[in-house]
C-alpha cells in the first residue's frame, strides 16, 4: 500500500483527478457525476440536520433506511428481506466491501475476482491476508472465460467477488455466467460477494442480482450504495444484505471500522430509494444517451471501443491511434487533448498488466456539452 519512496500511494482516481485540476483538462477519469442527485433527496438531508438527526445512529443503520432498502429490494427484485437482521448500513460500498472481506476471510484463503477489477478489491484482499486469484475478462465483450472460471474456483476458494454491472469494463454478466458462479460456489463451499453499485445504471436489460438465482441466497453477500443511483458519491451511504448470521459477522468488523454511518444522510437516501419507478428509468435512459455521445466521439477519434451495457464507463483501445501503453497515454492526454482518463492497468494485478496495456477508461457521467467538448478535443489525437 506504500509507494516505493515510503509515502502513501495515491489511488489512481485521486492521482488522475489531481492531474485534471493541475492541467485544467476535462476530467473523464474518476467516476463521479458533475450534477448532484434529486432535489428531494438533498432537501431530506437538510431537513434531517435541522430536525436534529446528528448524533450516533444505531450501528446497523437507521430503521427508516433499513426499511427503505428492504422495500427497494422487494420492488425491483422480489426479494423479501428482514430489515432488522438481513441488512446493514455502511459508509459507502467501500466500507461494505472492507467489512465483508475482513469478516469472511482468514489469512491464506483464496479470493476470486474478475480482472480488470475495482482497485479496492486487491487492496482489501491484501489487508485480510488473502490470496488473490483473478479470472480474466477480455475484449470485445468482457465476459469471463467459463473454463478459466471453472479452473480457478477450487476448495481453497473462500470468496468469489462479482461486480455486476462491472467497473471498469461496463460488462453485464450473462445469466449463464451468474448460474455457473453459484454452481461453483456451492460445489466448493465458497461465499459470493457481489458489488452491485451500478444496479440501476443498465442499458439493455434490467439488472439481475445474483442472490435471486436458485441456491444463491444462503451464500451471497450483496453490496450497493446510494452514491451512483442518486449521483451523490460524496455522501458515502452504502449497504449490505445477506443472511442474518453473515450480517452479524460483518457488523462485528464494521463496529471497529466506522462504528456507525453518517446519521442525516440515512433518511435522505431512504427518501431516494422510495422515489417512483420513473426516477430509476430516467437516470438509466439519460446515462445511455451520454454513453452514446461519448462512444461516438471516441470512435471518431480513432479508438476501438465496446459499447458498455451498464455502469458509467467506456473502455477504449488506443492501439489504432498508435499508443500501446495506456498509462503513458493517460499521463500525456491532458497535453495532447485536454482530457483525463484512467489506464486499465490500474485495475489489474502486476503480473497481468501487459495483457491490458493499451486500454484506457473514460467516464461518461458528465454533462452532454462536456462530453461533446471532450470528443472534439480527442479528435486531435489522430
Ligand atoms: N464498487 C465499485 C465497483 C465502484 O465503482 C465504486 C466506486 N464508486 C465503489 C465500489 C465504491 O462505492 P462507494 O463510493 O459507495 O464507497
Ligand atoms: N468508483 C469511482 C471510479 O471507479 C471512484 C472511486 C474512487 O475515487 N475511489 O472512478
Automatic annotation (TrEMBL):
Cofactor(s) required for function per UniProt: pyridoxal 5'-phosphate
GO cellular component: cytoplasm
Gene3D superfamilies: Aspartate Aminotransferase, domain 1, Type I PLP-dependent aspartate aminotransferase-like (Major domain)
Pfam families for the chain: Aminotran_1_2 (PF00155)
Domain Aminotransferase class I/classII large stretches: 25-349
Domain of life: Bacteria
An example Gene Ontology molecular-function term: kynurenine-oxoglutarate transaminase activity
Protein keywords: Aminotransferase, Pyridoxal phosphate, Transferase
InterPro entries: Aminotransferase_I/II_large, Kynurenine-oxoglutarate_AT, PyrdxlP-dep_Trfase, PyrdxlP-dep_Trfase_major, PyrdxlP-dep_Trfase_small
Membership in a protein family: Belongs to the class-I pyridoxal-phosphate-dependent aminotransferase family.
PANTHER family attached to this UniProt entry: FI04487P
Stated name of the protein: Aminotransferase class I/II-fold pyridoxal phosphate-dependent enzyme
Organism: Cryobacterium lyxosi
Taxonomic lineage from the root: Bacteria, Bacillati, Actinomycetota, Actinomycetes, Micrococcales
Amino acid at each position: 500500500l506504500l509507494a516505493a519512496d515510503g509515502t502513501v500511494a495515491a489511488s489512481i482516481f485521486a492521482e488522475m483527478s489531481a492531474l485534471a485540476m493541475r492541467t485544467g483538462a476535462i476530467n473523464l477519469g474518476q467516476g463521479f457525476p458533475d450534477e448532484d442527485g434529486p432535489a428531494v433527496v438533498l432537501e431530506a438531508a437538510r431537513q434531517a440536520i435541522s430536525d436534529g438527526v446528528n448524533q450516533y445512529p444505531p450501528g446497523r443503520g437507521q430503521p427508516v433506511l433499513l426499511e427503505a432498502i428492504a422495500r427497494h429490494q422487494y420492488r425491483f427484485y422480489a426479494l423479501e428481506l428482514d430489515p432488522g437482521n438481513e441488512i446493514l448500513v455502511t459508509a459507502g460500498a467501500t466500507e461494505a466491501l472492507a467489512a465483508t472481506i475482513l469478516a469472511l476471510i482468514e489469512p491464506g484463503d483464496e479470493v476470486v475476482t474478475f480482472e480488470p477489477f475495482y482497485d479496492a478489491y486487491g487492496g482489501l484482499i491484501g489487508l485480510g491476508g488473502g490470496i488473490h486469484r483473478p479470472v480474466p475478462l477480455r475484449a470485445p465483450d468482457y465476459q469471463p472465460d467459463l473454463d478459466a472460471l471453472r479452473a480457478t474456483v477450487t476448495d481453497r476458494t473462500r470468496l468469489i467477488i462479482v461486480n455486476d454491472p462491472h467497473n471498469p469494463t461496463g460488462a453485464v454478466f450473462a445469466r449463464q455466467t451468474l448460474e455457473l458462479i453459484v454452481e461453483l460456489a456451492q460445489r466448493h463451499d465458497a461465499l459470493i460477494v457481489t458489488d452491485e453499485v451500478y444496479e440501476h445504471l443498465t442499458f439493455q436489460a434490467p439488472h439481475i442480482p445474483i442472490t435471486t438465482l436458485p441456491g444463491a441466497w444462503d451464500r451471497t453477500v450483496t453490496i450497493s450504495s446510494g452514491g451512483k443511483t442518486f449521483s451523490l458519491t460524496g455522501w458515502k451511504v452504502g449497504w449490505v444484505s445477506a443472511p442474518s448470521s453473515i450480517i452479524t459477522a460483518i457488523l462485528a468488523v464494521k463496529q471497529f471500522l466506522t462504528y456507525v454511518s453518517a446519521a442525516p444522510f440515512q433518511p435522505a437516501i431512504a427518501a431516494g430509494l422510495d422515489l417512483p419507478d420513473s426516477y430509476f428509468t430516467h437516470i438509466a435512459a439519460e446515462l445511455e444517451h451520454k454513453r452514446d455521445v461519448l462512444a461516438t466521439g471516441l470512435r471518431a477519434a480513432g479508438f476501438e471501443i465496446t459499447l458498455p451495457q451498464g455502469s458509467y464507463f467506456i473502455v477504449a483501445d488506443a492501439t489504432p491511434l498508435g499508443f500501446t501503453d495506456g498509462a503513458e497515454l493517460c499521463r500525456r492526454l491532458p497535453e495532447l487533448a485536454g482530457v483525463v482518463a484512467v489506464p486499465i492497468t490500474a485495475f489489474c494485478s502486476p503480473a497481468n498488466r501487459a495483457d491490458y496495456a493499451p486500454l484506457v477508461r473514460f467516464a461518461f457521467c458528465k454533462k452532454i456539452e462536456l462530453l461533446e467538448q471532450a470528443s472534439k478535443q480527442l479528435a486531435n489525437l489522430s
